[in-house]
Design goal:
The protein is of the alpha+beta class. The protein has a single domain, classed as Alpha-Beta Complex (paralog of FGE (formylglycine-generating enzyme)). 16% of the residues lie in helices and 17% in strands. The chain contains five helices and 13 strands. It has a five-stranded antiparallel β-sheet with strand order 1-2-5-13-8. A four-stranded mixed β-sheet has the order 11-10-9-12. β1 and β2 form a beta hairpin.
Length: 361
């Protein structure tokens, strides 16, 4: 998948973006995208996001829809309470850049080739939570069987999808630690080359930045970035839908979108083109893969300022994934991972360029 880079030099784009950070929420028309050189012929495209306000969380009506017939999320659990009791007005004070798409396999591979980095799942004793190909259904009436299990030897190189991995898939089986390492490498690389504007760093987006970016500039508390109707999401996202699992004549069970999105597992990044991009031009913000963000998890709801736990940190992931029911792929959905080293074949990340936010390793 190729993208059209900005028509202005990267260095000038950086200077214009710095001005946007210091002078207010507006980005210049020429400063909407930034193409970053990863080396070895690889690039990553970032989209300028102005500062602004949004409503974080969901309404009781949205939670009821999510756990209803169409949404299909499991009722009676605490999961929807993680979104907060009601939407709260939040402000993202600084403009920032965000990846047009999740970081892809090819982009992560370039990082590994340049640094020799070993992901958490590949380290001694490491593993990734992956699809179990022997799974043939939940069998809820007898013995509950889950389709995912921890697998040593599986990683971003082989997530156990059962089909060949392509460079334009979103990278999965990566942890919070792995995403931060990718961003730190790019920060050092771009700073050494003199291409990183003063006062900025590459990092994971904060939880507030992520939800603000996901909503695409809307100040309403909508279920999805395009509105509240699931049917309007056809041709926009990759979630559980009418697509056969590899080598089988059945689809994912439980609630699903009543159309084919073309993929039982992951879709290539930006596969749905302009229709799959929100008001900020970001692709795959709902569905696709869970996106790991910088903050640590607070079960009472997200925060405007970045949150880091002093003990037992559980990074937040956002947005739902290719396996999820529709009710679990909304703008407000948030979960806490088991820990900073946890890796899963449904989890990836998106790159951000913005003011430093710190955070414990």
């Amino acid at each position: 998948m190729t993208h059209t880079p900005s028509s202005i030099p990267i260095g000038l784009a950086g200077l214009l973006f710095c001005a946007a950070l210091t002078t207010g929420p507006s980005l210049t028309a020429a400063d909407k995208t930034r193409l970053v050189d990863l080396g070895g012929g690889g690039t990553i495209e970032l989209v300028g996001i102005p500062a602004g306000e949004f409503m974080m969380g969901s309404t009781p009506a949205e939670k009821a829809w999510a756990t209803g017939i169409e949404g299909g999320a499991q009722p009676g659990t605490s999961r929807e309470s993680f979104e907060g009791e009601r939407p709260r007005l939040m402000r993202v004070k600084d403009a920032f850049w965000m990846g047009r798409t999740e970081v892809s396999v090819g982009q992560f591979r370039r990082f590994v080739e340049a640094t020799g980095y070993v992901s958490d799942a590949e380290k001694p004793g490491g593993h990734a939570q992956c699809f179990n190909p022997e799974w043939d259904g939940y069998h809820i009436a007898t013995t509950m069987v889950h389709p995912w299990k921890p697998m040593p030897g599986k990683s971003w190189r082989d997530p156990n999808f059962g089909f060949p991995l392509r460079d334009n898939y979103p990278v999965v089986c990566v942890s919070w630690n792995d995403g931060r390492a990718f961003a730190e490498w790019l920060t050092k690389k771009e700073r050494a080359a003199g291409r990183l504007p003063e006062g900025l760093e590459y990092r994971l987006p904060t939880e507030a930045e992520w939800e603000y970016a996901c909503r695409g500039g809307s100040k309403e508390s909508l279920y999805f970035w395009w509105g509240n109707e699931l049917s309007d999401g056809e041709g926009r996202l990759n979630i559980s839908a009418i697509d056969f699992l590899p080598g089988r004549n059945r689809v994912w069970p439980l609630a699903h979108a009543p159309w084919s999105d073309g993929f039982a597992f992951v879709s290539p990044v930006d596969h749905y083109g302009e229709k799959g991009r929100n008001g900020f031009g970001l692709a795959d913000m709902c569905g696709g893969v869970w996106e790991i963000v910088l903050d640590h998890f607070d079960p009472k709801g997200g925060h405007e300022e970045t949150l880091f736990a002093d003990a037992n940190p559980r990074p937040v992931c956002r947005g739902g994934n290719y396996f999820d029911v529709p009710g679990n792929a909304r703008c407000a959905v948030r979960l806490g991972l088991h820990g900073p080293a946890y890796s899963d074949s449904r989890d990836g990340f998106r790159l951000c360029l913005g003011t430093p936010r710190g955070g414990k390793p």
